[in-house]
Every structure is written in C-alpha cells, then in structure tokens.
Amino acid sequence: MKQTDEEIIQLFKLRDERAFELLVKTYGGLINSIVSKHMYNLLSYQDECVNDILLAIWDYIECYDGTKNSFKNWIAILAKYKSLNYVKKYKKLNEEIELDKAYLVTEDEHLNRLLQHDTRKGLEAILGELKEKDRQLFTEIYFNDKSVEEVCRQTGKSKNYIYNRLSRGRKKLKTLWERGVSSDETQRI
Hints:
This is Sigma-70 family RNA polymerase sigma factor. Residues 123-173 form the RNA polymerase sigma factor 70 region 4 type domain. There is one protein chain. This protein is mainly α and 189 residues long. The protein folds into two domains: 3-94, Rna Polymerase Sigma Factor, Chain: A (Orthogonal Bundle); 99-186, Winged helix-like DNA-binding domain superfamily/Winged helix DNA-binding domain (Arc Repressor Mutant, subunit A, Orthogonal Bundle), CATH 1.10.10. 79% of the residues lie in helices and 0% in strands. It has eight helices and no strands. It has helices at residues 3-13, 18-38, 46-60, 71-127, 132-143, 148-155, 159-179, 183-186. The longest helix is centred in the middle third of the chain and has 57 residues, at 71-127. It starts with a helix and ends with a helix.
C-alpha cells in the first residue's frame, strides 16, 4: 500500500476533512472517469454521483480491508456500483417522464381527432342545407381539392356556371352560419 493511501485511510478514520482533499487530488481523475464512463448520458447527475461516492468512502472506510484488494481498487469498485445505481435510478425516472409525455401526446392526438371529427360533422351538417348539386360541387372543389376546370370537364358545365353556383352557395352558407339556422328554418330562406 502506498504511503498516500495509508494517510488517506487514516484521515478518513479520524474523520478529518482533509482526507477529501487528498483523496480528490490522488484519485479524483479515477472517480470522475468511472462516473463519466457509466453515466455518459446523465451529465447533469455526474457531480451528484461523485459527491455520493465521496460520502460513501467517508461512511464505509471502516469496511475497507487492505488484505482483500488495494485502496485504489476499492474506490474504483465503489465508484462503479454507485454510478450503476444512479443509472438505474434515473433511467426509471426518465422512463416515467417519457411515459407521461407519451400519454400527453396521445391525449392531444385524441383531442385533435375529436375536434376534426366535430368540425367535419358541422361542415357536413351545414353543407346538408345546400341543394344536392351545390353540395356535390362544394365537396369536389373544397374537400377533394379539384380545380374548377376539372369540375367543368366532369360535369360538362361552363366555368361561369360553376363560379355562380359556388358564389351563391357561399352566400347561403355564410347566412346560415351567421344565424346558426337549423335545417327546419332553412326552408324559409
């Protein structure tokens, strides 16, 4: 055993805080490299883990047996297992956070689908107030994204006829929308 190791152990046993300075000076690089190796994706928790390792050395120095392995190996093993415990702890926490996020995203997607469904039903209801020909015309142009030229070719009607039907239909829909008129009252318009 090195002279420095004996001094560090003795200072820890005497509960002298200078032991931390000497330990960090001698084995700080080893502890940091072990922690960063195992906690590469948990950068924000590495310092906390190093502090816990130093505290564990302080608390368990009486358990160190120089006949079983070197002080350096004992520190390395302690650092390794503390790091792995942190990884397990924060992996679970991250999984819970990810599940919460996934649940929120699922709720948002469900709400969006409901809103789209309600909006579509509302549009279909108000389009139901138009004559069958006008309803088909609006569906082709506004829902199926067909051009006026395509609809003219399909129906054999002129552009002016299509534009007039669309204009009259929009006016009627605007009036119905502003008044919130139901299908019973549409008959009077």
